[in-house]
Specification:
Shape: globular
Radius of gyration: 23 Å
Strand content: under 5%
Number of helices: 19
Structural class: mainly alpha
Number of strands: 4
Number of domains: 1
Distance between the termini: 79 Å
Order of helices and strands: HHHHEHHHHEEHHHHEHHHHHHH
């Protein structure tokens, strides 16, 4: 009997070794200087760093009218499919999920700002994904990238970061409206104190480099918010409705593809395309530099395939019922752990699936618990501000307008539009026509059209 047990254990061990060997060969793990164990741990690290999107994305999209549970299911499905495609097709250690910034653009600019229905806004997401896919397939990224000055690219990221931070502070009631001063500090009550403590705790987790710092902050703030309404006031902030439920696919195929093809919506489609395209490019470039994920020419490894995955994920996100999916910079958490191959993305994809059935548990999370994560994401997005050329005002002025107008006008689109228009006008009025690329003329013209039609 002991011999039989030993033989069975040996056979199981051999089978496990063969499976690991297959993964090694398929993803070229050893060739990339990594190991299967390292890749799996790196996938877990990236998942913990980016899983906040499972709660935060539905929280933002629900402001646009998409049911929270439907947005949550769509978030999980597209994160699974996008990361799986990144694993098997592009074979890069990158998380793909609905992006912060894109969801804010969708909710607060297209739906609440411009008055589009969320179904039409999803149509704009779809068409921006179609154009992105065409650009990726025909590999025209170089011409597009060179048309937009670096200062404006960095400024857009920073401006969206400030906007997201502002949204987080509003969701927490930390910043409220004021007739006298437009905005002011909210009432110093138990809710505000809970948010502020959660924000400080989240910052400490990030500073100490805990994996899943944002998720830990969300969980801690939720626990702290649970007694509210029971100990202070009448409103129940956190209410238990169950542990698990079937996925909610009520938003699937609600996208209004044809309704999004109005001329007045073209600037929205373009801004979504621009934001997603350059977010993807900057993420790939940053990860390639930090982990030497480069090909023989020094370019990011499998860039065209990775961009194609990003583009098709954006396009598929709309029929599923969520804003555009994109490459997550949180992928750097796994890269820092030594992840180098698509096996990292495969692990990430698998880890998302259980949350398809946990919407009642995740719906416990109130707005004041996701608000610290929004504020911290805004902080992360401010990193490129040091790269803006502040010494040359022909570059600094358009960048500054783009950054400051996004939160002040409560519109990502308006900030980008005025940034583009001011750049072209300054170059024209100073006689520097040769510094304006053809694509930039088109971009500025579309921005003018948008301002005249909204």
């Amino acid at each position: 009997m002991h011999e039989t047990t030993a033989r069975s254990a040996d056979e199981n061990g051999a089978a496990a070794t063969r499976r690991l060997s297959l993964l090694d060969r398929f993803f070229n793990v050893s060739q990339r200087g990594s190991s299967v164990k390292t890749e799996i741990l790196a996938g877990l690290a990236t998942f913990l760093a980016g899983m906040y999107i499972i709660v935060v994305n539905p929280a933002v999209l629900s402001d646009a009218g998409i049911p929270f549970s439907a947005a949550l299911s769509a978030t999980v499905v597209i994160s699974f499919l996008g990361s799986l495609a990144m694993a098997l097709y592009a074979r890069n250690p990158i998380l793909v999920a609905p992006g912060m910034g894109m969801n804010a653009l969708f909710t607060y600019t297209l739906v609440l700002g411009a008055g589009l229905s969320w179904e039409v806004a999803l149509g704009c997401v779809f068409w921006s994904g179609v154009i992105f896919a065409i650009l990726a397939l025909f590999n025209v990224r170089k011409a597009v990238i060179e048309a937009i000055p670096l200062s404006l690219r960095y400024a857009i990221t920073c401006g969206i970061g400030l906007f997201i931070t502002f949204v987080g502070l509003q969701n927490a009631g930390f910043i409220v409206g004021s007739d006298a001063t437009v905005v002011t500090l909210g009432n110093m009550d138990a809710q505000l104190a809970t948010f502020f403590l959660g924000l400080i705790a989240t910052a400490v987790f990030v500073i100490l480099r805990f994996n899943g710092a944002l998720v830990m902050g969300i969980a801690l703030t939720t626990l702290a918010a649970a007694p509210m309404g029971r100990l202070w006031g009448d409103e129940i902030t956190v209410a238990w409705t169950g542990l698990a439920a079937w996925p909610d696919f009520s938003a699937v195929m609600k996208v209004d593809i044809m309704g999004a093809l109005k001329v007045g919506y073209l600037p929205f489609i373009f801004v979504m395309l621009f934001t997603n395209f350059f977010d993807a490019m900057s993420c790939f470039m940053a990860l390639a530099e930090s982990a030497d994920l480069k090909d023989e020419d020094g370019n990011p490894r499998n860039l065209q395939r990775s961009m194609t995955v990003d583009a098709f994920s954006s396009m598929i996100a709309a029929p599923l019922g969520t804003s555009a999916a994109q490459t997550f910079i949180e992928s750097g958490a796994g890269v820092a752990q030594g992840g180098r191959t698509g096996l990292v993305a495969l692990v990430i994809a698998v880890l998302f699936l259980p949350f398809l059935f946990l919407s009642p548990l995740l719906s416990l999370v109130p707005g004041i618990a996701t608000a610290p994560a929004l504020v911290m994401v805004g902080l992360f997005m401010m990193a490129p501000i040091s790269k803006i050329d502040w010494e040359h005002f022909d570059q600094a002025f358009p960048a500054f307008l783009a950054i400051i107008l996004m939160p002040l006008t409560y519109s990502i689109t308006l900030g980008i539009a005025f940034g583009f228009i001011s750049f072209v006008l300054i170059k024209v009025l100073t006689g520097r026509f040769n510094e304006i690329k053809p694509a930039m003329w088109i971009t500025a013209a579309l921005s003018v059209v948008m301002l005249l039609t909204t």
